[in-house]
UniProtKB/TrEMBL annotation:
Protein family according to the UniProt entry: Belongs to the short-chain dehydrogenases/reductases (SDR) family.
UniProt keyword annotations, A-Z: Oxidoreductase
Protein name: Oxidoreductase, SDR family
Organism: Geotalea daltonii (strain DSM 22248 / JCM 15807 / FRC-32)
SUPFAM superfamilies: NAD(P)-binding Rossmann-fold domains
GO cellular component term of the entry, any: membrane
GO terms assigned for molecular function: oxidoreductase activity
Lineage: Bacteria, Pseudomonadati, Thermodesulfobacteriota, Desulfuromonadia, Geobacterales
Pfam families recorded: adh_short (PF00106)
InterPro entries on file: NAD(P)-bd_dom_sf (IPR036291), Sc_DH/Rdtase_CS (IPR020904), SDR_fam (IPR002347)
Gene3D superfamilies assigned: NAD(P)-binding Rossmann-like Domain (3.40.50.720)
Length: 269
């Protein structure tokens, strides 16, 4: 972890959920393009390794903040820490997320409330905290990671998809407000991607995760490029784009039935 004494005046990107999967690959993208990194997650050891790796590979400065974003007050803690160290955030990437899979009657309320805190409250708070300085500079970027589940109600993923719908709606509305402000705003909405996400949610045997998975680096590249182009929404991958296009014209109940089938465990034979 680099200290503020080594911090140079390159643009800094703050990435939540930087320790694995899409967040890790987004860090690589931004670092390769000359951005300093503030990496945020709960695993201090992995944060340290990532910071050191990207400092060495790309000659950037980095700083790790070990925090559980499902705890209220965590966004303010991050903001205060960076203010104290005089580290500005030019681009905010709200990527951290997880799933609690299963029928709503059986899933953990505790985990679902943490998910709502992480996917809704933390993203809203971090954006509220870091936006004013971006507006002052008339320059900045906000990349929020939604999901193809942002577009559809999916049984066995009821709370997850509802939180991801919030992210998409919030991001599109914000993009509308910030047009002409110099701040780019994008919602990155991936489909099934090969990361630690499915294993952590015990979803590896579902049809959706037994099917073709996108590569996290390709998803990150799509998000990075869409933000550069200030595209409000990006769905990476042609198959995911076709799925989203078909959802727009199908009855919601049919979408939910197909979604449920995708989320069921694939029979072993
Ligand atoms: N993989 C997919 O199929 C898929 C599809 C659509 C959308 N997405 C979305 O993509 C985003 C990234 O997921 P991923 O697939 O890359 O999953 P992942 O490999 O499991 O990575 C999740 C990241 O979020 C961090 N995180 C989780 N809970 C956190 C918390 N409470 N506080 C701080 N950090 C936390 C994890 O780090 P620590 O454990 O160290 O905290 C990790 O760095 C998520 O928003 C997810 O919903 C994924």
């Amino acid at each position: 972890m680099g200290g503020e004494e080594q911090w140079d005046d390159r643009e800094t990107v703050l990435v939540t959920g930087a320790t694995s999967g899409i967040g890790y690959e987004l860090c690589r993208r931004f670092a390769a393009n000359g951005h300093n990194l503030v990496v945020v997650a709960r695993d201090a050891r992995r944060l340290g390794e990532i910071g050191a790796e990207f400092e060495k590979s790309f000659g950037i400065s980095s700083m790790g903040i070990t925090v559980d974003l499902a705890v209220p007050g965590a966004p303010q803690q991050i903001f205060d820490d960076l203010q104290r160290r005089n580290i500005p955030v030019h681009i905010l990437v709200n990527n951290a997320g997880f799933n609690e899979y299963g029928p709503f009657a059986d899933t953990s309320l505790q985990r679902e409330l943490e998910m709502i805190q992480l996917h809704i409250a933390a993203i809203t708070s971090l954006t509220k905290l870091f936006l004013p300085a971006m507006l002052q500079r008339r320059h900045g970027g906000i990349l929020n990671v939604g999901s193809t589940g942002s577009f559809a109600p999916v049984p066995l993923n009821a709370v997850y998809c509802a939180t991801k719908a919030y992210i998409l709606s919030f991001t599109e509305a914000l993009a509308g407000e910030l047009q002409g402000s110099g701040i780019k705003v994008t919602a990155l909405c991936p489909g099934a991607t090969a990361t630690e996400f499915a294993a952590r949610a015990n979803m590896e045997e579902t049809r959706i995760f037994k099917g073709p998975l996108m590569d996290a680096a390709a998803v990150a590249a799509a998000g990075y490029e869409a933000l550069q182009e200030n595209r409000g929404v990006v769905v990476p991958g042609i198959m995911n784009q076709a799925t989203i296009a078909s959802i727009r014209f199908a009855p919601r109940r049919l979408v939910a039935r197909i979604g449920r089938w995708m989320l069921e465990q694939k029979p072993a034979h």
